[in-house]
Amino acid sequence: MPDDKFLVEIFSAPGCKQCDKAFQLIEKIMNDGDFCSIRLRKVNIVDELDYAVELGLLATPGIAINGQLIFTSIPSEKILRATLVSQMKESHE
Asked: What is the pLDDT of residues 28-80, one digit of tens each?
């Protein structure tokens, strides 16, 4: 990526409480020093439906990492952290 940031996208819909929880979970993780290279983007599926469908998203919330749909529901904090660490290592190999 040009700015060397790790892109995490939260796919949400207006009024989706679970989507807000997913966003808050990512923000909490980002506040840790180990994840300062994450760039977070909230994707409104109403505005970007074609992109959501292209990634295979069928329901919200969804979490994509570097353009790949990884979660189709909210994972636990532990699983999300482990996945982020794994994905970051893979992207630097």
From this structure: 888 876 777 888 999 999 999 999 999 999 999 999 999 999 999 999 999 99
Taking the model in full, what pTM does it have?
0.87
CATH code of the domain in which 46 resides: 3.40.30.10
Please say whether the beta carbons of 69 and 14 come within 8 A: no
**Is residue 43 domain-resident?**
yes
Torsion over CA: 39, 91, 12, 3 (sign): positive
- Would residue 1 count as lying in a domain? no
Residue with tokens 């796919």: 11
Domain count for the chain, please give it: 1
Confidence of residue 4 (pLDDT cuts 50, 70, 90): low
| Helix-helix angle 77-91:17-30, to 10 degrees | 60
